[in-house]
Design a protein that fits this description.
Blueprint (H helix, E strand, L loop, with lengths): L6 H4 L6 E7 L8 H14 L6 E7 L3 E3 L5 E2 L2 H12 L9 H10 L5 E6 L7 H9 L6 E6 L4 H13 L4 E4 L15 H33 L7 H12 L30 H4 L9 H6 L4 H24 L6 H15 L4 H12 L7 H8 L8 H5 L4 E3 L2 E3 L4 E3 L10 E4 L6 E4 L6 H14 L2 H9 L2 H4 L14 H10 L6 H47 L14 E5 L6 E9 L4 E6 L4 E5 L3 E3 L14 E6 L7 E9 L10 E6 L4 E5 L3 E4 L1 H10 L2
Parallel strand pairs: 1-2, 1-5, 5-6, 6-7
Antiparallel strand pairs: 2-3, 2-4, 8-12, 9-10, 11-12, 13-14, 13-17, 14-15, 15-16, 18-19, 18-22, 19-20, 20-21
InterPro entries: DUF4537, VWF_A, vWFA_dom_sf
Pfam family, one: VWA_3
Protein name: VWA3B protein
Length: about 675
């Protein structure tokens, strides 16, 4: 249905108020008759059931059929068809102007763009201009277009505007364009079908597992006598067996493994081979399978029971053998379940030390147990990245979380940044979990200790397994001398896992310290803010008293001269009388109080100061400078400080001739000097 008539080209028109943009450039000369035919089908099959519509043709210039959207009626439909029939080819392809006409109409709900090649304007410019308008779906139709770049542009245009892309090519001359052959509607339907098939396969697998579990627990088992026997064994376990051991859980993930198969000797694996009663014989001779089940099933089970009991030193009729018996029945009923038997035998009875470290870490590693530092911080993690804004031609970052989430995690490849909030995570509990995980890695100590001969064990003073991390050098030398009875890869994998765990603990501690420092910093900032809020406004402190001695900036030179406050003009300006008997209105921010109870802190190298200069008492003034050397004596008042003036000249001044200032005031002062 979607590939017939006008829907094969334009897809299914779902909006009520639409614009149809038709390319009439020179390249459409041989294609225009077919386009007219398809548009006629579009009018008859879809547009007549809409509310409003309009057509726009574009070549070097774009021309609309009507100024605005026209109502759907027989007269307008007939008039539009006559207009379409009269279309003639032009020259170039002014796609941008056609889009602007359609997007400028306030009633437009969707745009359908039909073209066969690249636009006159750069694609990036068109995409940027489209973003300036309100978001309207632009459905693009590539009509017999074998230009890959043009198809990519049309696909990107529809994607960014949440429209659909349709590719229509009668001849399909370009094989590289085959990826565009399916319309968006068909692609979505195919994806839905594929998803349904995957879900159906999963449900079949789950259903099969449920059947297996039913058989394992004795439910729905046609062999009631055998089921009753197994049940009675489970209800009356051997003496000394705890009640917890009556119930047994099975991992649901069923994998085929040959690990346990390698545990049996060749004679034991071939028990019953002579009379074709071994498990292998049952699998090989599938044709006579049903007959052999009834005749030989019990005999085969007796053989398996003897093998397992002898191999594992289990008492006869133990609860574990009863469980295997139920699985054995299931294996006879479903040939595919033979791998389950080997898996369960391995998971129940094989030592975990016989499993490779790579396989063991898949279920017991930090990643598998979700104990990495990012797993702990995941509830508060916020991805942080940039977004390209075409109209600005820049990548921009959001600063919303800068203050709320001050810390960030950078990936190993430095391509991903994630903002985190350690304060919202219980890192102490996380560290305890990781420490418990490290204890579970005693497997490394046991693995190496088991591989060492007694003479090597005697070299260590400890009775049991020694700690690998504490005796690493000695243990590795012993394993090297023995020719590595344990896989080197197994040892290194476990060692790396332990080191990773210790690193995560250290990172968690570092984050806690960072949080404490951040809290102290924010507390100090809030305290300072409260103190400032209690202080009088700027210009209302010392200036309320007349005759306050200050140094104030002169507009003539930009230097600071000694003077006295005559009166307050307002909250931001004061009238200052200088020693030279001149008066000037000076902003409060360009005055500094001197004399009286003024702080005189100890200066350090790099501090910014105003340094007094001038040969005569009446001509002294202050200029910005930087301290580059301080006296070594504790009593510095009588010693000289070396300062670098704003003009790169050095001077030696005593402490009373220097007034400490901020870096900002130093920068401003240098700017104002004439």
């Amino acid at each position: 249905w979607l590939q017939q008539g006008s829907r094969g080209l334009f897809g299914n028109v779902v909006e009520d108020d639409v614009y149809i943009l038709i390319d009439t450039s020179q390249s459409m000369k041989d294609k225009l008759p077919l386009v007219k035919e398809k548009i006629f089908q579009l009018i008859q099959e879809q547009l007549r059931y809409k509310r409003r519509f309009n057509f726009v043709k574009f070549s070097a210039q774009a021309v609309a059929w009507q100024e605005k959207l026209a109502e759907v009626n027989e007269e307008n439909l007939q008039d539009a068809w006559l207009w379409v029939k009269g279309l003639e080819v032009g020259s170039s392809t002014n796609t941008l102007q056609a889009l602007q006409i359609a997007l400028a109409d306030a009633g437009t709900q969707a745009v359908y763009l039909l073209t066969d090649g690249r636009p006159d304007q750069p694609p990036s410019k068109i995409l940027a201009q489209v973003q300036l308008h309100r978001k309207i779906p632009i459905h693009t139709v590539s009509f017999n277009c074998d230009d890959t770049e043009a198809n990519k542009f049309l696909c990107q245009l529809s994607t960014e505007t949440e429209g659909r892309f349709h590719y229509y090519d009668v001849y399909l001359t370009d094989r590289d364009a085959a990826e565009f052959i399916a319309s968006e509607d068909l692609r979505l339907l195919k994806r839905e079908i594929e998803q349904g098939e995957k879900d159906l396969a999963k449900m079949k697998s789950v259903h099969a597992e449920c059947l297996m579990m039913d058989y394992c627990t004795g439910e729905n088992d046609p062999d009631k006598n055998l089921s009753h026997s197994v049940k009675s064994r489970e209800e009356s376990p051997e003496e000394g067996t705890s009640s917890e051991r009556k119930s047994f859980s099975v991992k649901r993930s069923v994998k085929c493994t040959d690990t346990f198969k390698g545990k049996l000797t060749e004679q034991e694996a071939l028990v019953g081979a002579e009379d074709n009663t071994s498990p292998a014989a049952f699998v090989t001779n599938g044709a006579s399978f049903d007959a052999k089940v009834s005749a030989c099933g019990r005999k085969v089970w007796n053989a398996v029971e003897n093998i397992v009991a002898r191999f594992l030193e289990l008492p006869p009729h133990s609860y574990k053998l009863s469980y295997i018996h139920s699985m054995w029945q299931l294996q006879f009923k479903h040939l595919k379940c033979i791998s389950i038997l080997y898996y369960i035998l391995q998971s129940l009875f094989c030592s975990s030390l016989d499993i490779s470290s790579a396989l063991w870490l898949k279920t017991h590693g930090l990643v598998a147990r979700r104990l990495t530092i990012m797993d702990a911080l995941a509830p508060t993690a916020v991805p942080y990245g940039n977004k390209y804004i075409p109209i600005l031609d820049k990548h921009v970052f959001s600063k919303v979380f800068d203050e709320i989430l001050p810390l960030a995690h950078v990936s190993n490849d430095k391509k991903r940044i994630t903002r985190i909030n350690p304060q919202a995570v219980n890192l102490d509990a996380y560290k305890e979990k990781v420490e418990q995980a490290i204890k579970s890695y005693e497997r490394l100590n046991l693995l190496i200790w088991r591989a060492l001969p007694q003479e090597e064990k005697d070299k260590f003073k400890e009775d049991g397994p020694v700690q690998y991390m504490q005796h690493k050098k000695a243990l590795l030398e012993a394993l090297e001398n023995l020719g590595w009875p344990v896989s080197y890869e197994d040892v290194m994998l476990l060692e790396d896992e332990i080191r990773a765990a210790l690193l995560y603990i250290q990172q968690a501690s570092d984050l806690q310290e960072a949080v404490k420092k951040e809290n102290k910093k924010s507390l100090a900032s809030r305290t300072s803010h409260l103190k400032k809020s209690k202080k009088p406004q700027k210009g209302q402190g010392f200036l309320t008293h007349k005759s306050q001695k200050v140094i104030a900036r002169s507009d003539a030179t930009g230097f600071y001269y000694p003077g006295t406050v005559i009166k307050n003009i307002n909250s931001t300006c004061v009238l200052v009388g200088f020693i030279s008997e001149e008066t000037q209105i000076v902003p409060v921010k360009f005055t500094i109080p001197v004399g009286g109870a003024v702080p005189c802190p100890r200066l350090q190298v790099g501090d910014y100061v105003f340094a007094r200069t001038g040969e005569q008492t009446g001509n002294e003034y202050y200029v910005p400078a930087i301290v580059i050397a301080t006296p070594k004596s504790v009593d510095m008042h009588g010693k000289l400080h070396t300062v670098l003036m704003f003009n790169n000249m050095t001077e030696h001044c005593i402490r009373s001739e220097l007034i400490k200032i901020s870096q900002m005031k130093y920068d401003f002062s240098c700017c104002y000097i004439r």
